[in-house]
Write a structure and sequence with these properties.
The protein is built from 13 helices and two strands; from the N terminus they run H-E-E-H-H-H-H-H-H-H-H-H-H-H-H. Helices cover 69% and strands 1% of the residues. It is an all-alpha fold. Strands 1-2 form a two-stranded antiparallel ribbon.
Length: 302
């Protein structure tokens, strides 16, 4: 007597309830995405075409906010300060993070060392800003005490227009460089050791292998890291807010701080939304250009 066979769904097909179960699990994340990202974005785009101050209903003004933006000298100064910050932050952070990642990869893979490198990232931007504000205080900061002991004049790191943006950028480099280094370190681990062994057999030096093997094979990871760090750098706010609050003379009045001031201090939500939309478009263009130029979607490990 033969046993009855149990029917199994064909390979690759889904059971009738799989789609329903998948949607059930996805629903909370999708709800949060719609409520906290999609809806605020659409609402912000709409408000950018209105005059709105929270005290009365929004009034449609068309492109007036964007015309005001083009002719607003404070906006262009804020954009310049933001670009200055981005260049210093990205340039220093990427180079230092790459150096740390390569040293960890080539010399040691200690878990304890990775924890030490990542430790500053666990400190919030506000706390980091306040701590460095104390350290670099012109009168009482230990940093300026050391500078004076070395025979140099004290420096108003946060009070001098020429020093403020680089100082804020380096504070954020200190906080984020460990996280960036670990991202690059993860990319280095994906490079096959046999590639380096072949390089040594051919007599290549460490510098030659770094230039001809490590950098080309690390390109997709570096592209991702640069996209993440550039987008994050354009959104700098909390470090500036607790250290300089846009001073001196608007030298550190970055775009996010200007948007906050317009919206919550002056109640000009329409104009603030227009600047936010402009910033979103700038970041979109920068991201697409970076992705295309660095061929982030393709690897040389063919």
């Amino acid at each position: 007597m033969t046993k009855p066979t149990t029917a199994h769904p064909p390979s690759g097909s889904r059971a009738p309830g799989d789609t329903r179960t998948a949607l059930l699990f996805i629903a909370p994340a999708m709800l949060g995405y719609l409520v906290f990202l999609v809806w605020p974005t659409l609402r912000g785009v709409y408000l950018s075409f209105t005059s709105f101050d929270l005290l009365s209903a929004e009034r449609w003004v068309g492109l007036d906010n964007y015309r005001r933006l083009v002719n607003d000298p404070v906006f262009w100064d804020s954009l310049g300060a933001t670009l200055h910050y981005v260049v210093v932050n990205i340039g220093v952070q990427t180079v230092v993070a790459l150096l740390i990642a390569v040293l960890m990869h080539r010399l040691t893979r200690s878990t304890a060392l990775r924890g030490i490198v990542l430790a500053p990232y666990l400190v919030s931007n506000v706390v980091a800003g306040i701590v460095w504000l104390w350290i670099l205080d012109t009168q009482l900061g230990v940093g300026n005490e050391v500078i004076e002991l070395l025979g140099f004049d004290r420096i108003a790191f946060f009070g001098d227009a020429s020093w403020a943006i680089p100082t804020i950028a380096l504070v954020n480099v200190w906080r984020h460089v460990g996280y960036t280094a670990l991202l690059i370190f993860a990319g280095l681990q994906s490079i096959p050791p046999t590639v380096y062994e072949a390089g040594r057999v051919d007599g290549a030096s460490e510098w030659r292998m770094f230039r001809s093997i490590t950098l080309p094979l690390l390109r997709p990871v570096l592209s991702l890291v640069l996209i993440i760090t550039v987008v994050g750098s354009f959104q700098v706010f909390d470090t500036v807010s607790v250290t300089t609050d846009g001073k001196p003379a608007n030298a550190t009045n970055v775009l996010q701080l200007y948007i906050y001031d317009l919206a919550f201090d002056r109640l000009q939500f329409g104009y603030a939304s227009a600047i936010s939309v402009a910033l979103m478009l700038v970041l979109t263009v920068i991201t697409v250009v970076q992705y295309r130029l660095m061929r982030a979607g393709r690897s040389d490990l063919g």
